[in-house]
Structure formats: C-alpha cells, structure tokens
Specification:
By secondary structure, the protein is mainly alpha-helical. The protein has nine helices and no strands. Pfam families: TetR_N (PF00440).
C-alpha cells in the first residue's frame, strides 16, 4: 500500500532535520547518507524517494534557511547569538550554533553542491547583521567584515584546546565586530588588500647579500 502524501512529507522533513544537524556539525564529506537515515530512523532505501543525491539533500537542508534564527535582534543580540557558537558544545544544537558550525565545517570545500548551499547561507548571515546594524544596504560592508570575523573566530576556536584562548578570541572578535556594526571610530575609507585591482604594486624584496 503506497504511503499518503502527508506521510511522505513528514518523512522528508525528518530527513532534512537530521541532515541539517549532521551536516552542520560534521560537514559534507564526513556525513554519509547512511548516517543521516540512521539518525532519523529511516532506511537508506527511503532516501532516494525524496532526494537524488547527498548533494541535493545538502543544498536543501543548508540553503538560505539554515541561518533563519527568527526575528532579527539588535546588534548585541545578533552578535551574542553568533559568537556564542565560538564555544562549541556537542549537546547544543540550536539553529544559530548549528548554522555557524556548518559555515565553518565546509568553509574551504570545492564541492559544487556544498558551494551552492554555502553561498546563500553566508549571505543570509550577512543580511541579518546588516539589518541589525540598521540599514541592509548602507551597512553591508560592515556586516561582511563582522560575519567573516564571527566565522573566523569559530574556525580558530575549533582548532585549539586552550579554553582561555577560546574565550579571549571570542571576546576580542566580538568587540571588534560590534565596533564595525555600530560604526564606532570607523572611517569611511575602505581598506585595500593585496588582491584589490587598485592595490599598489608591491616592491621587490631585496636579495640576500
């Protein structure tokens, strides 16, 4: 007897919920279809009734909805929410922390399906921070920098064991991100990086005598 459309929809949502949790915490490469299906209590055979591939599941589970954490708060609330993820705890899988872990876990992936899901999720984080700052258009540059700072802090915190260093890292980066978003002592001049088209040519290093 075929399953009803309601049953199929519920199964799909169970798969997506498990995939979002596992992909967020362990990344695309380390998460298998078998692991996702075992986590949600369904068989591997049921997977292909809903998704064509692991990549398709990833795109849907961690697209622009992965960073949906409810109404946008003020600058302090949003930064608290994201920098809270700098102290990873396996038993804390709330949406903001999970999204932050996903953005770090697959930050350098070259897989096309990962990149297709990553871009919209990162853009959603930037949009939230820009809205918290006041103007999604005017404050986009500051939001980009603050988002990169948040994810960078989490990435480094995930690779060190020193709890004091983790705390210092989170506190320092959060304070600087808040300065950017509140435009405290930040000028209008944009920084120039070595990859910028208008960056001055670097002088040749002197040869060792």
């Amino acid at each position: 007897m075929p399953h009803s459309p309601t049953h199929k929809s519920r199964s799909r949502q169970r798969i997506l919920a498990s995939a979002r949790e596992l992909f967020s915490n362990y990344g695309f490469e380390a998460t298998s279809i078998d692991a996702v299906m075992a986590h949600c209590g369904l068989t591997r055979g049921a997977f292909y009734a809903h998704f064509a591939s692991k990549g398709a599941l990833y795109r849907e589970a961690l697209g622009d909805g992965a960073v949906d954490a409810g109404p946008v708060g003020d600058v302090s609330e949003e930064l608290d929410r994201w920098f809270h993820a700098c102290q990873p705890r396996p038993d804390s899988l709330d949406t903001p922390s999970s999204a932050a872990r996903f953005l770090v876990a697959d930050i350098a992936s070259g897989h096309p399906d990962v990149r297709a899901g990553y871009g919209p999720a990162f853009e959603a984080l930037v949009q939230r921070l820009a809205e918290a700052a006041g103007d999604p258009t005017e404050d986009r540059a500051a939001a980009l920098a603050a988002a990169a700072m948040a994810l960078g802090a989490f990435a480094v915190a995930s690779t060190v064991d020193d709890a004091d260093l983790k705390s210092q890292l989170a506190a320092t980066c959060r304070a600087q991100a808040e300065r950017l978003l509140r435009r405290d002592d930040v000028g209008d001049e944009r920084p120039t990086f070595f990859w910028s088209p208008d960056a001055p040519a670097r002088p040749h290093a002197r040869r060792m005598q």
